[in-house]
Amino acid sequence: MQFIDLKTQYQRIKPGVLSGINNVLEHGQYILGPEIAELEKKLAEFCGVRHCLSCSSGTDALLLSMMAYGVGPGDAVLTTPFSFFATAETIALLGAVPVFSDVDINTFNIDPDKLNETIENFVSGKHHVLKENPGLKLKGIIPVDLFGLPADYSRINKIAEKHGLFVLEDAAQSFGAECQGKKAGSFGDIAAASFFPAKPLGCYGDGGAVFTNDDTVFEKLVSLRVHGQGVDRYQNIHLGINGRMDTIQAAVLLEKLKIFPEEVQLRQTAANYYSEKLREFVALQHIPEDSLSVWAQYTLLSDNRVLLSEQLKKRDIPTAVYYPIPLHLQKAFEYLGYKAGALPVSEELALKVISLPMSPYIKKEEQKEVINTILEIM
Ligand SMILES: *Cc1c(COP(=O)(O)O)cnc(C)c1O
């Protein structure tokens, strides 16, 4: 059994993908070819957002977004400690300071009540990161839509507005998800998506996108993506990066986008089946009624994760742990001075989470085997 079955999908879309790639090879516009503009238009439409800027990865999408908001030294950016490293890494790469705020034990996403507490603690001058960095100013919030479930933006956006902070939605795992009838990518002031192969919508290499309704921010993003260029190529008005998506990856994504809505449905069906059979026996990520996860990961909590993964592995069932170390306890962030116990919910989740095989093409028989093995072990 595969953890994520990308091969079945490839067999399904093979002729379209090959002809899409072949078109790029024939027209020869490998950089910012016509497929890029076509993809950006389709992705923006899909999310119901005015602008989409394709880019080289989800990490660069985060980086470009924060550069567009002028994040740099002297700034602090709030985020969740229970995420992929890139979420906080990009804050620090820009010379700003990541300030972690704990997650909700049920949704695994940043907890708005705790976010209020963290901000209170910060603006009253009591937060420990201020000792090393006096004068630090809060600039924005990066909520992460973990495992494909949108964070609680109706509350987060109000908190952000009250304190004059931007909201950057880390939608790396949630492209295709929904909340209150709106699509992931549309919930903050700006959003970053990833098309890494294993994400719900993935290309055949690295890729990402930034979404925004703000014309001025978009104009700056266009410049930042190509070394901060001005109206002509050898005039530079900002410090930017080389952050373009390859035309070949855009051709792949255009083909995959055609079947993506159906794949989101298939993911939903597979997740519902797991939940129906497991709900009574194990703790699962809670999906609020107004939300639709895209199930980048199907994750449960176990007090004996090692035993569970070993037993599953014996039956050729792969599992994965996202994420075993919360960001505030990563060696690279030691300098921030967080201690074990500082963010207890993230630390507990890091010890208990385990993700099961999930893809639109997982077979019911495979799911049955996973479910039966789990129930037997328990
Ligand atoms: C995958 C991921 C990223 C980074 O995306 P890449 O395309 O791999 O650079 C950022 N944030 C989260 C939450 C992710 O899961």
Rg over CA atoms, rounded to whole Å, is 21 Å
Largest sheet: 7 strands, mixed
Q: Return the average pLDDT rounded to an integer.
A: 97
Straight-line N-to-C gap? 21 Å
* Strand order within the widest beta sheet: 1-9-8-5-4-2-3
The total strand number stands at: 13
The level of helicity is 40-55%
Plain-language structure description:
This protein has about 375 residues and is α/β, with parallel strands linked by helices. It has helices at about 5-25, 35-45, 60-70, 85-95, 110-125, 130, 155-165, 215-225, 245-280, 305-315, 345-350, 365-375; strands spanning about 50-55, 75-80, 95-100, 135-140, 165-170, 180, 180-185, 190-195, 210, 285, 290, 300, 355. Strand 6 and strand 7 form a beta hairpin. Helix 3 crosses helix 4 (about 85-95) and helix 3 crosses helix 8. Pyridoxal-5'-phosphate binds near residues 58, 170 and 208. Pyridoxal-5'-phosphate binds near residues 57, 194 and 196.
